[in-house]
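cron nightly-structures :: item 1 of 1
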Amino acid sequence: MNWKARLLKLNGLMPEMDDAGALAWSTLADAAEGAELVFLGLDDGKACFAAVPERGDASPRMANPQLWSLMATLSADDLALYGGARSIVDWHARHRFCAACGGDTKIGKGGWQRACTVCGTEHFPRTDPVTIMLVEYDDGSGAKLLLGRGLGWPERAYSALAGFVEPGESIEEAVAREVLEESGIVAKEVHYIASQPWPFPSQLMVGCHAVAENDEITLDTTELADARWFTRAEVTAALNGDENAPMNTPPRQAIASHLLKWWIEKGA
């Protein structure tokens, strides 16, 4: 065993930090006896691993404000590394039994597979696609953007609408369906903009832009606390941190923030 290999220090699924505010590392000698280890890749020639915790966590990221605050302090490289590590070890912790027969599973292929010890079925980590979309409407008096506030969100916290891609759907169909279901707005002309992995627990956020056929909102109160239209000036003020803006924008790490900046730059 190569004791020069590095082990990402996690407390359950929470990252531990060093004195410089970066992700903390130890060596494989510090891994618990019998721990399942996932190979994360090579860094400066050293193999990097993370240990699978006893329990996973399928709760949404908003349920853990401590984690959200901590993530805001990580560098882009550390955030990407932690996000990938969190997703994979969380998946292992929640898939110790076979979905086909209920038998025990064991880790394989460096942590990128589990195999049933009873029926031999192979299981692989999954990523769930989620559309997140900016919906724009312009009746000739100026463009405005549809944003929503999720249930339980703080007042004035608004973001792009989002929803899972259902089996058999294209990304374009998922965008149109989710927008119609949540707001009553008919969306068309869907275009892809960018994507972002989101480890809560393991999603791929597919950022899109769509054009609205109407602007009369019919809110689905089981999905959203509120939805409304915002002008370019209002979104710009919020992105600039103006306390008088009618909304607070998503954290800078979230793809929704990047989408809002893209929309402002597009109209400049």
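cron nightly-structures :: done
The chain has three domains: 6-94, 100-125, 128-266.
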